[in-house]
Design goal:
Length: 211
């Protein structure tokens, strides 16, 4: 039985960037995407609607942008140490993202994550169509992934921890035994068991009682 499961958000948590912003910059639509993001933060759009509008602005980008974005992202300090410590304790580390699997897949494999899940950008004839394939990874989906992975790995709720920074992470944080707000928005800081200002994930190792 796996005794510990740590689930991290990706953008601005596992990594230091927001992938959709990097893609928007490469598409020359950074300002437009920022305006949609701001509308969502004001509560004018829910996550699914804001994601759909932002992804639509990426239509026509060549799929080679995924490698370019992969070269630009930086892993949050302390993440490799956290992964090693959890694995040494026979636990599992997972990531769930409202971002995109085309960027998360190679990163997760490189880091040695045990499970991961993200949105799937539709690509046809080597270019982004401006649509997401399948169900959108929203707050409810993040919660379902945490609970599903815990059941699959036979981790009791007492052994679950969720780390995030945005409103999209609140439901999975609520479902876990330990919730950590990492360099987070005010609402997330208010709801979390532990608040970490960043920039390193190292303190989580101690929070989990690991070495």
């Amino acid at each position: 039985m796996t005794r510990l499961l740590v689930v991290l958000d990706v953008d601005s948590t596992l990594i230091g960037q927001e992938v959709v912003d990097l893609l928007a910059e490469l598409a020359g639509v950074g300002d437009e995407v920022a305006r949609v993001t701001e509308a969502a933060m004001r509560g004018e759009l829910d996550f699914a609607a804001s994601l759909a509008r932002r992804v639509a602005l990426l239509q026509g980008l060549p799929e080679t942008v995924f490698a370019e974005v992969g070269d630009r992202i930086t892993v949050t300090p302390g993440v490799p140490r956290l992964i090693d410590a959890v694995h040494a304790a026979h636990g599992a580390v997972a990531a769930v993202s409202g971002g995109f699997r085309q960027v998360l897949d190679p990163l997760a494999a490189r880091l040695g994550l045990d499970r991961w899940h993200a949105n799937d950008l539709e690509v046809v004839d080597g270019r982004l169509t401006g649509r997401v394939r399948g169900d959108v990874v929203d707050a409810a989906a993040k919660r379902e992934r945490l609970l599903g992975w815990a059941a699959e790995l036979r981790v009791p709720r007492a052994g679950t921890a969720a780390i995030g920074d945005g409103a999209n992470d609140l439901l999975m944080m609520e479902a876990s035994a330990l919730s950590v707000a990492f360099a987070a928005k005010p609402a997330v800081r208010a709801a979390a068991d532990v608040v970490l200002p960043g920039p390193s994930m190292e303190p989580v190792v101690r929070l989990l009682g690991l070495r």
